[in-house]
Amino acid sequence: MHYTGRKNLTDVFEQHGIEHLSHSSIDCFRNEPGLWLMRYLLKHREGTNAAMSRGHAAELGIYTAIMTDSNGHDEAESEFLKLTALGVEGVSREKERANLAAYVDNGVAALKEAGLSEVTDYQEKISIDLEGVKVPIIGFTDITFEGSVVDVKSTGRLPSAISPAHRRQGSIYQKAKGNHAIQFLYTTPKKYGFYTLEDSEQDLNEVHNTALCIQRFLGISKDPMELVQFIAPNFDHFYWNNPSTRAKAKEIWGY
Predict the structure, then answer these.
(1) Can you list the positions of beta strands (E) in 60-142?
(2) Less crowded by CB within 10 Å, the N or C end of the chain?
(3) 104 in a structural domain
């Protein structure tokens, strides 16, 4: 039997204090609903880590380098040190810091090779509506050029294509910025890759279907602790590597 949840979904998100969805929340639900419940219903927030902070810092450094006479190194390092000032393990912090300039340089080289220099926006907020989903899906693009939205991904290994998760993220941007190409810049300490998103209709369908699943799940109960009973987390997944997150999960699920 097809389960549809509550018949009246108009207040499902509101009763859980959710005003919008995002790529990160949707992908979290797809990969580990238990962690999604902790983050978005029980409001548990993990601290940052060195890799996440490196990503934000490298993006800022690349943007600074293409907008100014600076090479972006100082700005990237300053941002990285600020983001990792508390709660980030020293060895991983220094490793990422040491490679930060190389991430920035390779990202800038990729943009120059692609002939992209005319920046029209940075961290632009976008919002889309999907049929039957009662809240919008929002996001923030990285760097927008004339005719192109570029999402910057710093990574230890260079992928040969856009990852499925990033394709879904790009499909949201594509719907919001239909007259722009959606491109992904992957930068590593040694090389870079530049890929254009094509044929993203199926990717957006996955986003749409997941958002509807979230909506139906929330319709089961307005009590997050009742919803806990419908989830069996996979604690072998790396999502649970953060000690505080794992400790909180043990409080909730009892194991």
Answers:
(1) 119-122, 125-128, 137-140
(2) N
(3) no
pLDDT computed for residue 45 by the predictor: 87
- Any domain includes 125: yes
For the segment 188-222, what is each residue's pLDDT rounded down to a tens digit? 999 999 999 999 999 999 999 999 999 999 999 99
Range of the domain at 228: 8-41+118-232
pTM for the whole structure: 0.92
Query: In angstroms, what CA-CA distances link 212 with 22, 40, 162, 216, 231?
Result: 13, 16, 25, 6, 17
Note the pLDDT of residue 89.
83
What is the Cα–Cα distance from 178 to 219, expressed in whole angstroms? 32
Q: How far is CA 226 from each of CA 44, 137, 161, rounded to the nearest angstrom?
A: 17, 26, 40
**Cα–Cα dist 26/30, whole Å:** 6
Number of domains in the chain: 1
| H or E segment to which residue 143 belongs | strand 143-145
CA 76 to chain CA centroid, Å, is 19
The tens digit of pLDDT for each residue in 79-131 reads 999 999 988 888 999 999 999 999 999 999 999 999 998 999 999 999 999 99
DSSP assignment letter at 46: P
Residue 4 has pLDDT above 80, yes or no: no
Position 49 in a domain: no
Using the predicted structure, report yes or no on whether residue 69 has a pLDDT greater than 80: yes
Question: Is 248 among the domain residues?
Answer: no
